[in-house]
Write a structure and sequence with these properties.
Strand 7 (202-204) and strand 8 (210-211) form a beta hairpin. The two termini are 24 Å apart. By secondary structure, the chain is an alpha+beta fold. The protein has helices at 11-21, 66-69, 105-109, 131-140, 148-155, and strands at residues 3-8, 31-40, 46-55, 72-73, 82-85, 96-99, 202-204, 210-211, 241-242, 246-248. The strands form 3 sheets. A 4-stranded antiparallel β-sheet has the order 1-3-2-4, covered by helices on one side. The chain has 5 helices and 10 strands.
Length: 249
């Protein structure tokens, strides 16, 4: 399997540049991030990123071991920009696929009327959608919103997806400065290949709750049970709320 190194203005950009050298679009590629790092500026923003990716062939899932599937994007060639997660047999949680990135404005506007908010990058996560709107978008992709146990499985056992403590080089751990939404994928992904978990973006679950914060358990917004789950997320009083999609394996 070929290994390619590249750099960019963020890890996602570095990966796209690496794939381009192999004449591959991100939506077509089967790859694993072997190494990624970022240099931060004085304000804690990403100034430069490096990524090393490993290209792999698309194979049926039953021809790969769980170890081989770990962190491999689009392993069977049928799930672009998604990773396979093993679930948790002890909780009767079946394996599933999850988007490596939250739904962006570019993805949203390709299927819905509207305009990009002023000053917002097209790769920034889309926010402001109600639960019904998020569910409808997922259905158009033959996907759905994650369940709580799936989100917890994706998060992992540590306080944050990348470790025990906040680390600005692994993810923006505070609210975006001036509430300007940064683009997705600036920081390195988790070992499972997922970007932007445990950062400033809270994410919708299929039952109307949201998850994020310091841990998948602590980050659940219990107060939202008292709110209308179909209200626009901009009115829920929390940090920015977006969503990513999952699919049964």
């Amino acid at each position: 399997m070929a290994t390619i190194n590249s750099n960019g203005i963020g890890v996602r950009h570095a990966i796209a540049r690496a794939l381009a050298t192999a004449n591959l679009a991100p939506s077509d590629a089967v790859f694993r991030v072997r190494r990624a790092r970022v240099d931060l500026d004085r304000q804690g923003g990403v100034a430069r990123a490096e990524a090393s990716i490993e290209l792999a062939p698309a194979l049926p899932l039953d021809q790969r071991s769980p170890e081989d599937l770990h962190g491999l994007v689009n392993p069977d060639g049928q799930h672009p920009l998604m990773v396979w997660l093993p679930g948790d047999p002890s909780r009767k949680l079946s394996p599933f696929f999850m988007d490596i990135l939250a739904v962006s404005w570019s993805r949203w506007l390709a299927c819905n009327e509207g305009t990009l908010p002023p000053g917002c990058d097209s790769f920034a996560p889309v926010i402001g959608q109600s639960l019904t709107e998020a569910r409808q978008f997922a259905a158009t992709k033959s996907k759905r919103l994650p369940r709580l146990e799936e989100f917890r499985a994706a998060w992992g056992p540590q306080p944050l997806p990348w470790g025990e403590a906040p680390d600005p080089s692994c993810g923006q751990v505070g609210r975006p400065r001036y509430d300007i939404l940064p683009e997705g994928g600036l920081h390195p992904p988790t070992h499972s290949g997922l970007f932007d978990l445990g950062v400033w973006l809270w994410q919708r679950l299929d039952d109307g709750r949201i998850a994020g914060g310091r841990s998948a358990a602590d980050g659940l917004a219990a107060a939202e049970a008292e709110l209308n789950p179909d209200a626009p997320s901009s009115k829920l009083g929390h940090w920015p709320i977006g969503f990513r999609l999952v699919q049964d394996a």
